[in-house]
Please model this.
Amino acid sequence: MSPELGRLLFVLGLVVAAIGLAAMLGIRLPLGSLPGDISIRTGNVAVYIPLGTSLLLSILLTLLLSLLAGR
Model:
């Protein structure tokens, strides 16, 4: 295993741990209510499609991984 891959896995582990800690402390992230998120409720059925949130997370993760990869 290369040192770069080990460093990447370590950083990603820290990020996941920080998100888990924030969730345990009750800190709410402003995700899930962005423009572009679709929420449909009819009777007993609720459908939630997080298009805006997915797009934002995709862009942020692409930038983060590009920075970590050194490109």
